[in-house]
């Protein structure tokens, strides 16, 4: 899809603000393609998404942690007891039954719901283990070596904030086309917003191996929702998260990720500057000679994560969307606005406008927040 002409100007301005841009990124591009060719072959054999037990989080080896950071994804097992997760799902089902007018899709057999403040959601987000895992995830981020240990104003990775999102109870046998491969937390903003773009400085200079997706600085004041589109997160989530409420296997309507965040960032950020001379699904696409430094803006689907179209299992595939969000000034400002929505039973600021939840039976109140850290996370205590 061709983008408006102003994006060609943006590309030119990026290209002219880094010395020797064309030479440096062309060299980087050929290295990135070669690495991608290898990684896409070996990754399947590696058992690629790290799995750890919640109880072991504080005892992981340096190698385990480095692997999690490179993959960019981690399964944390036994974060809450199975019985608790199943009970939450049953409670959500009961909520939907008691409130048949709840908005959801597909309209004739609702499985994904515009609900944010049910008791199970408020309880899960404020569960001490979920918040502890959030802090652990947040702390995988760090300041640049040049910033040293200086404390960033208003930032505390040890305090978790809540970002209210929805849940789904997906039934087998129904195809979903809602989530083809995409990145969350802003897309074009990664180039267009000058704050956000700083996260990728090392890619634009061609020093792609030095890129560190876990550096905090550029993320803190990144504007990830320049267009205010519904469902576009305006907060800095260190990790997006799903809390499982059922057991699923591959092909059963679950998550797919591209498990190398350094490499996918390097590819995606430099991709607009190059155009291929062979079809993108051909075998030769990894050969640098089949790409030339770009002269038009074309955008393709950046393969980072997607939701499986098919669900071939027998049971449902149910999750709550609960990301990891650290205390930063921008995030805190959002949490204040989100708190007002919670207290009024309105939908949170980043999401599609629609009927309030306050009229439904079984909506959560402040008493349903499970922990002190949970109250802090929602801006209800300091
Ligand atoms: Fe997503």
TrEMBL record:
Signal peptide positions on this chain: none
Matches recorded under InterPro entries: Gig2-like, IPNS-like_sf
The protein's name: DUF1479-domain-containing protein
Organism: Agrocybe chaxingu
